[in-house]
Amino acid sequence: MARSITVAVRLALGSLAIGLAGLLAGYLPSLSPSSVFADATFTVNSTGDEADTAPGDGVCAVASSGLCTLRAAVEEANALAGSDTIQFNLPSEGGYVISPSSALPEIVGSLVIDGTTQAGYSGQPLVELDGTSAGQASGLSVNTSRGSTSTISGLVIHDFAVFGLAGGGEGKTVIHGNVIASNGGPDPHGRRGGIYLGDGVTIGGTSPGAANVIAHNRGHGVVHGYFSGGTISGNSIYDNAGQGIFFESRCFAVGPCGTYPDHIPAITSVERVGDNIVVRGLNNPNPGRFSPSNATLEFFANRTIDPSGYGEGEIFLGAREMYDITFEETFPAPAVGCIITATGLTAMLGDTSSFSRGVMIGRASGVGGGLLIHNSIHSNGAEGLVMYSDPDYPTSSVVQSASRSRGELTINGSARSVPEADLETPYHQREVSASYRERPRRHRRNDAAGIQRKAAHRAGRFSRRTRNRSPSTRRPLGGKGPCH
User: Fold this and answer.
1) How far apart are CA 343 and CA 381, in angstroms?
2) What is the number of helices (H) and of strands (E) in the chain?
3) pLDDT band at residue 301 using 50, 70 and 90 as cut-offs
4) Are 155 and 149 in contact (CB under 8 A)?
5) Who's near 336: CB < 8 A, 6+ residues apart?
6) In 3D, which of 174, 210, 209 has the Cα closest to residue 195?
7) 460 HSE (CA, 13 A, CB side)
8) In this model, does residue 417 exceed pLDDT 60?
9) What is the rounded CA–CA span in Å between residue 239 and residue 234?
10) Which of 213, 172, 168 minimizes the C-alpha distance to 194?
11) Are the CB atoms for 241 and 316 separated by under 8 Å?
12) Helix (H, G, I), strand (E, B) or coil at 80
């Protein structure tokens, strides 16, 4: 009898186990067959654009050839659990160019796309994503869930209509060692360009090989998304049609879209001292509740500057931790680039500011530094001279009248400039910062003589005589030679 009871109990337990297994199979998708393919590695060996035959089976293969395309690899990675990796082993014939015919699938899980695995890589990306035929799409888009981590590195991404890379979601995304060029286009809201930076996205870094090149995009270089805490560090950002770093979240705040000052540092002067430059300025000239001081500043040299006067960052000079309101930092003089800019990184929010206003080596605040002497400017189809400057302190002048009386030339007009700035110009290109009336001294030469005036940030009229100075005492335009 005891033996019978034991058998009956075992049969009952066995039936219960079978029933539970069936129940779990029906209600727990995580136990589906695809879940066993965790932490998979897929090798892209075709530049084609076909979709995967059976996403989720753990095999990256297209129907026509059995090869693995980038589209198929992303589809497989999205269908599988775990942290996956996409490598490259493309044939050299015809180059390593992948041309999607439509938008690639969004990346929704932990995934590493590593272009440095392509044979022949030696520090410069070889694998290209060409968006010419992709329509209104971004090159790669990330929309991960909380707890996911994605890394995209070693790619050239160009000619996509929206963004080269769009990072977002609730996970973490690292973008480093890529070339992002010629993407985006004109957009009044700034939603096109090189990279869209969402929350939790890190673009670049200061370690070897981490920096991206973000250049020649038809929109902004980087668009900082709504209230995102993204980090932009150590990159080479230059020659983009829009701003180097544009803040989308400022479009409903103060001023024109993308121009709210956030925590942009202010460089007040850059001095050449031997083989070094000394950069001075303010950590954050606009501190406040939503604009904390920066914990770190990064400095850059540039060959050119945006028309707004606010720069980009072509050549990374270095990063410095900040401990005070003001700063004075020394760097080796750059071999290329004579305009210095900076960005700020906050400790509280962990986000990067826009680029500061550019300052030429050997000059006080303001990109100005061009020297115009003895020119005859007339009969042009538009303005003879256009000056760009900080919109908060525009440097502009209006000559209202000029008259000569008994050997004295009187010029009446108005001008504005940065408050309390030393302005030094040749006689014919005189600059002051309030309404003015200039009277050159009688019988003094005025062909190459200069004036120096402590600019007063006030309105009104005044009349002062110029003070002649020897041309040898003028401050230089920059360092050794022109801005290459």
Assistant:
1) 38
2) 2, 32
3) very high
4) no
5) 301, 303, 315, 484
6) 174
7) 6
8) no
9) 16
10) 213
11) no
12) coil
* Section 206-231 average pLDDT: 89
Q: Which residue has 């108005």 as its token pair? A: 414
Distance CA 41, CA 82 (A): 11
Tokens describing residue 471: 């041309």
Cβ-proximal residues to 256 (8 Å cutoff; 6+ apart), any chain:
none
- Positive/negative CA dihedral, 55, 61, 62, 64: negative
Q: Which residues does 344 contact at the CB level (< 8 Å), separation at least 6?
A: 263, 264, 265, 283, 284, 294, 296, 297, 322, 352, 353
* Other beta carbons within 10 Å of 58: 16
Longest dimension (CA), the chain: 137
Q: Which residue has the tokens 């035929």?
A: 133
> Which of 61, 63, 60, 54 lies closest to 33 in space, CA to CA?
54
369 in Cβ contact with 362 (< 8 Å): yes
3-state secondary structure of 388: coil
* Contacts with 48 (C-beta within 8 Å, 6 or more apart), sequence order: 62, 65, 67, 69
Distance (Å, rounded) from C-alpha 307 to C-alpha 247?
A: 18
Q: For strand 315-321 and strand 296-302, is the pairing parallel, antiparallel, or unpaired?
A: antiparallel
Place of tokens 């066993």: 36
Residue whose C-alpha is closest to residue 215's, from 178, 240, 198: 240
Report the residue count for the chain: 484
pTM: 0.70
**Residue whose structure tokens are 């004295």:** 408
| pLDDT band, residue 44 (cuts 50/70/90) | very high
Under CATH, which number does the domain 262-370+385-392 receive? 2.60.40.10
- Torsion sign over Cα 39, 211, 265, 353: negative
Mean of pLDDT over the chain: 75
Looking at residue 359, the DSSP 8-state letter turns out to be E
Which amino acid, residue 374?
H
Mean pLDDT of 79-101: 95
Collapsing DSSP to helix, strand or coil, 33 comes out as helix
- List C-alpha distances in Å: 68 to 73, 85, 104, 425, 483: 7, 13, 14, 65, 47
Q: What is the C-alpha separation between 454 and 364, in angstroms, rounded? A: 13
> What is the rounded CA–CA span in Å between residue 379 and residue 149?
60
Residue predicted with more confidence, 295 or 213 = 213
Give yes or no for a contact between 108 and 77, defined as CB atoms under 8 angstroms apart: no
Q: What type of residue sits at position 283?
A: N
Give alpha helix (H) positions in 172-240.
none
Residue type, 6: T
Q: What is the DSSP code string of 357-374? A: BPEETTEESSS------S
Residue located via tokens 């560090």: 233
Selection from 241, 267, 262 nearest residue 184 by Cα: 241
